[in-house]
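Bench notes, bay 3.
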Amino acid sequence: AGQAEVVRQLVIRIETLLNAAQVMTAHQYFEIDEDLTRFQQGSMLQTIPSILESRVLVGSQRLAERLKQHFFEILPYEPYVLEKINTYLQTERPQLNQADLKHDLGGLRSLQIPLWIAAATFGVFPSYTAEMIALLIKQRLLSPRQAFKLCQALEFTYDLRNFTGAARDHYFDEEARHSGCRGEDLLPNVINDNMERLYLLKKQRFQDVDDFDRYRLQMQDTIQQLSRALLRNILERHVVRTFQTFQVTVYLRQRRIIEINALEGMPQVPLSLIFSDPLKLLDLFIYIGKVGYDLSFELKDEMADLLQSLTVEVVQSRAPELSEKFSELMMTPYVDQALRIMLEISDPIGLNDPAFFGGTTTQKYLPDTLLGRFIPECNQMHFLLRNLSYHQYPVSIHSLNAVQAAEEELQILQKQYPELYQYLQPKHILALKWAVLFHDVGKIDPRTRHQISGTSIAVRALERLGYADPELFGSISLMIAHHMTVVGLSKTSAYFDQAIQQFFEIANRDLVNVILLFLVNISDYRSVSDVTAKDTRTLRTFFEETYRVYAEMRSSGQLNDAMDAINSYLDRKKQDLEFDTRVNLLIQQGLQNSIEDALYTPVAKIQPQEYERLQKGHEELEQHWRLLKMGSLDEKGLSQTTEKLIRTIRQYLSPDTINALINPYQRQLEWFFAAFPNRFLLSSSSAILAQQMMRFGNWSSEATVSVLTNPRGRPVGLLVYVQEAPQIHSRIAYALSRRQINIEGAKMNRICFADGRSAYCYYLQITVRSSAMIFPRELEHSILYDSPPQLDLDQQHFLHNPRLQLEFLEDDEKGYVVKEIDGHFVRMAQSYLRVKLTLEDAPLIFYKLANSFDCFEVSVQQSLITTTGFQVNDYFYILPQDLERLRSSGFEEVVKRSLSDPPSHN
């Protein structure tokens, strides 16, 4: 241990000296027999060649060779070669008078890449470039003359690069200044006119600038030509990859699989026998997903024979294992390529329908593809056209392009936001890939909203593949349902903060959901057309701003996790919104009078000093007040003018003065912001909140309903206040169901008044038929006086399979009750236990669930309802003693029987 510490300190000192000499270094410590497989992943892969070509300065040569051998054993050849080829192809061609000596084509890196690939191919990593060139001559990849040219080019390039590294600090002096050199243009690794002038002045190697340029460009051209030739010669070979039951022959240069055979020494049989097991077939496509190879045209045609034997029964027989194989496939970097090939492998349309060619078939003209044998919906998506005014590609091509974009966006996220990428676990990336593939699957049914119907179609498809994870289904459904939502929020020019708040709420205040929703939105959007691919700046800016908000909250150092940061941000916004609502309430009440009576006179009495300050803004206040009082503004103008007036009043008046001005409404406003859920408060403007607060001023009312509408006047939400009464939740649910009001999301809170009364406040996000009207008074009457029907809980045959999953959960520390204490309304934390119900949406679902609790006389204290597509996730908060009663009394069976009964609408 002591000797190791001495060596470590020596390495640190060497590194310090190198840094002092402006030599960039990086260090890495390894333990003997350490697991090095992490270096096979992503950006870590480039560490391997650096280790393999290293040489020992101090220490044990034997241990170094052992470490190199271990690294070489874990080097994934094809991903490594593909990564290097992609890097080479992305190398920029330099300008004639300016070049990056390291990274441009003709620089050192463009030669290093084919040398590294050759080393990996031959299993030899010499520590010196000269040794590597000698190996290339031996392998007949370079002639002696070409090798001499290469060495000549390398000598000059290294000399020039060393000069650029020392130019500013060691060569730039008074003589250089007088010659016209500028210090700010002297950059390491960069040759330009300024560096060229300094080199000619100090090195005395060339007679004039023409001599220098001629030689430099010739050396650059030598590296360009020989690196291309080396790469071509190295890749001009066939390699064989062996799997458990088959082997493939790959033509490296074309990145194409040209042969598939049984294992060497085994009888050679047709592909239909090699891949009689669908799991073995998926092994092939997992390999393709890892390396991005194509299949030869002949192989694709031959593999179409598999369609005859790959029946529904064969696929279903391997369903449990299929999910594991498909998960492995979806996690590969080139999964889009694998899926494209599976779509290309197909039989002629109607091959198995004799009537088809006679023109008498009544079946759809659907393609019969290999991918469709596993996921039939992909056959329906193939070459399906939808919304051509917006979409440039058929649904299938667009979806696969989006899958490719998702992989690229993950890499961008890892590079630009590593602190966010670390939150993504493999299960999250798997959900993202499936969601992107299925985001438009709902378009196969043109009669539905594809983002809603797509959720149930996707879940059905995954269940056929053997998936059975409700958490996975929920995450996929959330992304499919909102694959366009974040794009819409990013284009909200006004109320940008409110758009971010809505983003957090849609994501259920979960940072992972925030990341996934952004990724699915941008992957879809950039794949729509060539135009949208270049038009992602607004969406990226919106996400960047969302991240900035999150980062600001985390930087306070008082927050434990991502959820705390999001909640803290939303709580702060709620406080700002509450204060704006106070000002808006002051404005709405005051517009009935002149500005003097509504504002100046009361302020003069309460705070004379602030009255003097208010006079400074008299002209601006008068202008905004007059515009609002005239009532001639459109909705946008009204909103903007009100916002300006609020900001002006806040500028001149203190919070205490504003509170004093609205003192008669202080208690009512306090109640309103405590009683109604944050998801409603944060999604509304202060003007709407002020209006709704006045609507709910009568707390003695047995039931009060208010309808929330969008700018087109369509109902999108309900606020409901009800006094506690027997079966009150069932009554509300039944009243909504009778009017075919579908609940997309809801939150309910309980209020306890000081006089002993209790009440409930609901916020419901709803959808209704296009022609439907909701009348608040009628709905209030229905809640109070319409008796819900009794459910038949004794029936033996279930008429509807609710696909129910019920869980009894512990306290999540999010429950609270609104209490009146000393005349003030506050949210008091409450220890509740939870009942979580996950099921498919259907008519009367909420009523049947509420009725099930009534059967056990259990009072629901709070509830949270989320409908994502066709999947419903409900959380019911109840008292601890009630949970034990439900757990021991057959509650789940009662729920199932309730859900299966179809009562008539009385």
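Next record in the batch:
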Amino acid sequence: REIGVETGGSNIQFAIDPRNGRMIAIEMNPRVSRSSALASKATGFPIAKIAAKLAVGYTLDELKNDITGNTSACFEPSIDYIVTKMPRWTFEKFPEADETLTTQMKSVGEAMAIGRTFCESLQKVIRSMEVKRFGLGLDKNDKWLAAKRADTLSKTADHQHVQWPLNEETLTRKLAVPSQGRLYYIRYAMKMGWPLQRINQLTRIDFFFLDQIKRLVEFEDVLCGFTRLDDVPADVLFQAKRLGYSDAQLANLYLGNITADTILTVRAYRKSLGITPVYKLVDTCSAEFEARTPYYYSTYERGTGQWAVGNGAEPAEGGAPLSPLSIAHSPLPSSAEDEIRLTDREKVIILGGGPNRIGQGIEFDYCCCHAAFAAKELGLESVMINSNPETVSTDYDTSDLLFFEPLTLEDVLNVVERLSGDPGLGGNGFLTGAPHSAAPSLPHSAASSSLVRGLIVQFGGQTPLNLAHGLQKAGAPIIGTSVDSIDLAEDRDRFDALLDSLGLQKPPSGIARSLDQAVAIANRIGYPVLVRPSYVLGGRGMEICSVESALRHYMTTAVNVSELDNAPVLIDKFLDDATEVDVDVVADYEPTDEGTKPRSHEGDQAPASPSVPSSIICGVMEHIEQAGIHSGDSACTIPHWSLAPQTVERIKAIARTLAEALNVRGLMNVQMAIKQGATADADQIYILEVNPRASRTAPFVGKAKHIAWPRIAAKVMMGKSLAELGAREINHTGAYAVKESVFPFGKFPGVDVVLGPEMRSTGEVMGIDESLPIAFAKSQMGAGINLPLRGNVFLSVRENDRPKILETARLLHDLGFGLYTSGGTGEYLASRGIQTVVLQKIASGARPNVIDLMGDGKINLVINTPTRTGWQTDEGRIRAATVRLGVSMITTTTGALAAARAIEALRQNEWGVKAMQDYKVIADRAGPGGAGPGGTGLQTGSVLVPARLASVAKPVS
């Protein structure tokens, strides 16, 4: 009221002194905020939706609660569960960054978990993070457990040597300085006997949370009292599940490893004891009113049934204490506690992407949402499993059923079995043709069994793909491209054999499982080489090594980046000066005994039209940067801008050939590199990578072509053909679309602003216009990059790039920009008739230097192609200064030329704004037969125009 917020949402941050309860307001934002989205997902109360309706004149008492359908929105939500949110950091992408957590936000995503107790909720959110941890302890990263097993020097999952107990000075520092790993060091301190008072003094974490963590630490002693899984009695195992312990933790503790096989072994034993989760509703009212929206979370509840004891154990009498925690024995959860309501409609389960991080972000959520929409359009029930509160897929009205659960093998199988009509009391939990026998009667159930047509693992990035083998082993029906085809594309030996059989080129390469193998391969194919682990997204752990010493350093420091055990390192010849392209494809092939054929059509369905192929090119994206910059960090355009039409047709033909060879059913992404020759016929096309799944490029291609390709692909996976859907290729849209990446360098002082094969961007924007330079300019504005229309430019490029920068320098000079250069760049340009002001190196001590001029506002743009990385170098200090001072910077010659042409276009032309629907009209006129099915996915009147973001220096792609 005092601020003047008459309607809408507000966010207020408070600080409370735990000693006396004194409370002060720190900050107030008269708008919805990041935490508003979290609160909405935690309570089921749609804050932004309500705020929007209030803004147009409604009052709270006029609005209905969507969850209950019969209560008013003027009642505050009430919850009977605990929600825990945990941020997701990606410091591994910025090894030189300071990991200390301060008032400057450094996380790039978050996960949320719901449980009936804090302990359960905490452990669920930890395993939602996908950081090789499946709970607070007892997993492969547990230093205490590693030392306990060996009673000597041991190793954790990341192959770090562990000495127990930890050094007290180190532990004190880990507790006193906030960082992403502090929670685990609190546990170690408790394991070493540190009193809660000492931990509280170092961390200032409230005693409530420390007490809860101590409960888990003490219960570990109970679990460690058994040496074999079969020895664990039902009551102890049930209490472990109530406290949030995962099957993976128990597998590591009792079976010595975490694999799909060991997790399924624990699962089978747990089910033999009748210990299965129940599902509760998020209803905004603590069960006071009936909820109509199926928004669920899992938990383990006491019930009225009896133990289904499979090992001869009997429950203790009279609720005797289990441990120092005084946790009583409890009976098996009965179906009476399960609030899930099933229908007899077929269901399609979509696995989301989990927390956002570099390499796997909101692009995959776009795909998951369209899969849900596709299922609804086909009359199927869509089921979403995800743990990310930032996404649209976790809105309660995106899918027919929403399960806010960790994306682990255990949690996904629990949902699949429950939806298949098996609450875990017998049977394998899946329908292979006919429905299961009815499950025990459930309250509010429309039907006691339900058919799951299949799971979609293609749309959530690497997260669901990592679960695919385990799900397949458990008998879960995976639809779309087969797991074997996905593995074929990732397994370098098999994939190389496939390319050879198809007569397709690839860069010379090899697979190394040791340092000696890596060195031998690099010597054979020649430096520079591109090295990366297998089975990762976002170029994680990828580097370009130009000399043997760099390769040796990589093999001794980065070979454990892969999420999978025994994953080899892939080594490819790096193609310098090559143009990279991304190709997205949708196909409806299916495997047969004879090989591959188009999807068949049964009953009265229309046969495939001969005019509609079994694979369609969604889009060909040409990168503005040359090969070597990760595709997620590169700017790219639709349509292509430099490739010959004949070369593009060859690219499309190769993509179709690969889709057929891999039996693709759904989306596929192909990355290629083109070494351009004297003529188009001389262009050499190399296959870099094939991903028979949705790629992060899918939203960009969809918006550029005005077609929701993931929705079409999802329908194909659910049984439709491209012919039935009337899908067609769109070659011309009448406009250029440019994707540009957004980087977080302003959040990480000291990190060198250099792009390479490892992805570092955290988002992307798109510019669209009938002129390519203007479209590029719009993309830069959208990304917060200021392209100056006049002023001075500093150029410093490595020797090999000097001929490539000549056209850019001449264009900027002709536009009236003052040119400042480093010594070598200035000499080269002068020899070509372009006069510049040469500045001395910073290390020389001569003043003013380039940083001085930037600080005085006399340098408006920096163009620097790195020769060395690291902010301690002369050029590294310049790049760091651009971030600090907000000066735009370009680190590639192709990006510099695109920027110069954009500046020229901005000075010569006025540019306007069109709604996406207007661009679709242009596309309908330009393309053969219109933009095709799927629509834009945008509401009438929506406008794609860059928002003026806070200026953050980043390398312009």
